[in-house]
Amino acid sequence: MSLTSALRIAQNSLMNTGVQTTVTSRNISEASNENYVRRDAVLVSTGNGARVVSITRATSDDLLWDSLQALSDSQAQSIISNGANRLQRLVNGADNSTSAATLLANFEDALQLYGNDSSNTLLAESAVGYAKELADGLNSSSLAIQEYRAELDQNINSSVAELNNLLDQFKQVNDEIVKGTGSGQDVNDALDQRDTLLKQISEYVSVSVVKRENNDFVLYTDQGVTLFETVPREVTFQPLSSYSAGITGNTIRIDGVPVMGGVGADTNATGTLEAMIQLRDTVTVDMQAQLDEIARTMVTIFAETDTSGGGGPDLAGLFTFAGGPAIPLAGTIATGIAQTISINPAYDPSVGGNPELLRDGGANGAAYVANSTGEAGFADQLIAFLDRMNTPMATDPSAGITGSYSVSEYSESSIGWLESLRSRASAAADGKGALYERLQSSLSSKTGVNMDEEMAILVELEQSYQASARIVQAIDEMMQVLLNSV
Question: Where in the chain are the domains?
Answer without folding.
Answer: 3-58+450-485, 65-435
